[in-house]
Amino acid sequence: MLSMLEEVVLLAVDEKSGGLRSTREFATAYALVGAVFFDLALARKIDTDTESIRVIDTTPTGNATLDRVLADVAQRTDLKTVKEWIEELFHRKDDLEGEALRSLIAQGILRHEKSKLLWIIDVERFPLVDNKPQQHVKLRLANAILSDEIPTTRDIMLVSLAEPCGLLHYVLGESELASRRPRIQMLCQMETISRKVTDAIVALEAALRSAMTKVV
Amino acid sequence: MIMMTEEKRSDWFVVGARGRADAEAADELESGLRRAVESSAKVAVDFSALSYISSAGLRAVIQAARAAQAAKVEFVICSLTQPVQKVFDMSGLHQILHVRGELPC
C-alpha cells in the first residue's frame, strides 16, 4: 500500500506528460506536510486533537521519511501544536516530494527522465510506468466525493489533502465538483491536521496578497 | 483509558464508553462498537461519560459507523459531553453520523 505522501505526489503527476503539476505551489507544500502527519497517525505513531500533537510510539515505521519526522517530533519539546509543526516542516517540502518520487520510482510506478528545454533549462519528468496506482487513487477520490456513504478514514484524509492543492480538478469535472462542494468541504473539516493545513494555506495566501498590494 | 459497557434495552444494543477515547483506546473503542454492530440491527452509543476524544478516537467512531452503514444497522451517537460535542462540531461529524441528545431507549 502506498503512503498518503506517495499518493498525493502520484496524484500530482500529469499522466500524459509526466510533469509534476501544482496549481497552487504553497498549498501543495502544506499538503505534503499534512500527508506525512496522516501517515504517522495511520501508523499509530502520533495522535492529535483540536490543537495539540502527541507522540504515542517512537518505534520506527521502516519508512525513512516518516521515521525522520517522527524522531524530530519526539525530540522537539518546544513545538506542541499541529499548526507549529506544519509551519516547521513546510520548509522541507522539496525533501518530502523528492523522497516520495524516489520511492514511487523504486516501486516501478514512475520513471525519471531528464531533458533540456531550449538546450539550456533542465526539465525533469516522471512518466507513469504503471498507471493503475494513480487510477486507483483517482477512483477512491471520486467515490468519496460522489457517494453519500461514509468514506474510509484514508479517503477522508486524501480528499482533504487533494482539495487545497487544486488536485481534485484532475479527478472530476467542474460541474461535478461544484455540485459536490458541500460534501468536499465537510470531508475537509473532519481531520484536525487538514483543518490546520487549510488554515496555514489561507494565512499564507493572505500574507502574499498583502505583500503584493504593498508592492503595487 | 476507556471503559466499555454493553447493555440490551428493548430492541436497542447500548454501548457505553467512559473515560478518554485517544490513540491508546481507539482499538478497544472500535472493536466494541463493531461487536455491537454485528450483534444488533439498532445500536446506540452512549458517550455521556466520555470526557475526551482525539483524532484517533474519532476515526474509530467513523470506521464503526461505516461498518454499520454497510450492514444497514441503525447507529446513533448519544449524550455527548461538552468537550466531545465541541470536537464533533468542529469536525462536522454530525453531518454524516446520527447524533442525538439522549438515548433512544
Features:
A: about 220 residues; mainly alpha; two-stranded antiparallel ribbon; about 60% helix; B: about 100 residues; alpha/beta; 5-stranded mixed β-sheet; 5 strands
Q: Can you describe this structure?
A:
The complex is a heterodimer of chains A (216) and B (105). Chain A is mainly α. Chain A has helices spanning 4-11, 25-42, 64-75, 82-90, 93-106, 132-146, 153-162, 174-179, 181-189, 192-215; strands spanning 46-48, 53-55, 113-117, 121-125. In chain A, α1 packs antiparallel against α2 (25-42). Chain A starts with a helix and ends with a helix. With 105 residues, chain B is α/β, with parallel strands linked by helices. Chain B contains three helices and five strands; from the N terminus they run ββαβαβαβ. In chain B, α1 runs parallel beside α2 (55-70). The longest helix of chain B is centred in the first third of the chain and has 17 residues, at 23-39. Classes of the chains: A mainly alpha (216), B alpha/beta (105). The A-B interface holds A 41, 44, 46-50, 54, 56, 149-153, 156, 186, 189-193, 195 and B 22-24, 52-56, 58-59, 62-63, 65-66, 69, 86-87, 90-93, 95-97.
Poorly predicted ranges of chain B (pLDDT <50, ≥5 residues)? Answer: none
Helix-strand pattern of chain A: HHEEHHHEEHHHHH
How far is the N terminus from the C terminus of chain A? 48 Å
Task: Tell me the number of helical segments of chain A per DSSP (H or I, 4 or more residues long).
Answer: 10
- Could you state the oligomeric state of the chains shown? heterodimer
Q: Report the C-alpha radius of gyration of chain A, rounded.
A: 17 Å
Proportion of residues in helical segments of chain B: 40-55%
Total domains of chain B: 1
CATH-scheme architecture of chain B: 2-Layer Sandwich
For the report, how would you describe the main beta sheet of chain A?
2 strands, antiparallel
Beta-strand segment tally of chain B: 5
- For the biggest β-sheet of chain B, the strand order reads 1-2-3-4-5
End-to-end separation of chain B: 27 Å
Give the CATH class of chain B: Alpha Beta
Order of helices and strands of chain B: EEHEHEHE
Shape of chain B: globular
In round numbers, the mean pLDDT of chain A is 90
Q: Which homologous superfamily in CATH is the superfamily of chain B?
A: STAS domain
